[in-house]
Amino acid sequence: MSQAMADWLQHPLLSIALSIGAYLAGLRLFQRLGSPGWCPPVLIAALLVALLLWLLRIPWPAYQRGADWLMLLLGPATVALAVPLYQQMHHVRALWRPLLVCLPVASALAAFFAIAIAWALGAPPLLLASLAPKSVTAPIAMGITSTLGGSIPILMGSLLITGVAATTFVTLLGRWMHIEDERLLGLALGVNGHAIGTVRAFEIGPTAGAFASLGMTLTGVLTALMLPLAWHLAA
Predict the structure, then answer these.
(1) Scanning 24, 27, 128, 205, which has its CA 20 to 30 A from the CA of 196?
(2) Dist. CA 222–CA 11, nearest whole Å
(3) Gap between the Cα atoms of 40 and 48, Å rounded
């Protein structure tokens, strides 16, 4: 391989092109498969990127340097979810009391179950700190993980698995329990499945999407406030 080709394979623009191209391909395949909840476009894209990095022999640090530019867009994308939330604010006001009670409990349990199961299986502190914010949207979860001393790559893998699992099980349990209220489905998807669950909620309807945005946002805020404090008290 020539030096020019080696330099191009490590150029940041290639990382961006690979990421966007893989997502578009994943979206197309997702639609061809009938939009299954267990296989979202982001999962297909992640597998395609991993395959391309292996085939092209692109070092992970080189890809990460370019992909960091895309990570900067996660924050504005999360903030933009305020628009559908505002449009459905009348639904939120009607349920503010139940939301006030359930969201802190749901946020705490999402972190507690991950830590408890990993601890029972003998996971080291690094892994515990990486799994604790697994139900929080990526921009907030990355900051929490850095504060706790965890690993960002492990966190990102746990976020992907959590989002796919939450989307699949919320959809299946909703059908099994005959839950048709978009508010409940959306809130469950947002609290447990973060961004991946929120995308699925918008496929259900705008009300489900708004409640998923609310659940994802408030879960992130509450976890960012409570988890570092609880972590240092338990240490």
Answers:
(1) 128
(2) 38
(3) 13
**8-12, 20-24, 29-33, 86-90: which range is least confident on average?**
8-12
Determine how many CB atoms are found less than 10 A away from the CB of residue 34.
7
Rounded to whole angstroms, how far apart are CA atoms 125 and 132? 11
Q: What is the pLDDT of residues 45-80, one digit of tens each?
A: 888 988 988 888 877 777 877 777 777 777 677 677
DSSP letter string, 8-44: HHT-HHHHHHHHHHHHHHHHHHHHHTT--TTS-HHHH
pLDDT tens digits, one per residue of 165-218: 888 888 888 889 988 888 889 988 988 888 888 888 888 888 888 888 888 888
pTM, two decimals, is: 0.77
Closest CA to 152 of 140, 162, 164, 163: 140
The CA distance from 102 to 207, in Å, is 18
Region of 180 (left: φ > 0; alpha: ψ -120 to 50; beta: rest) is alpha
The dihedral formed by the CA atoms of 105, 107, 108 and 110, expressed in degrees to the nearest 10: 120
Residues whose CB is less than 8 angstroms from the CB of residue 92 and which lie 6 or more positions away in sequence, other chains included: 85, 99, 210, 211, 214
Residue 7: the pLDDT is 56
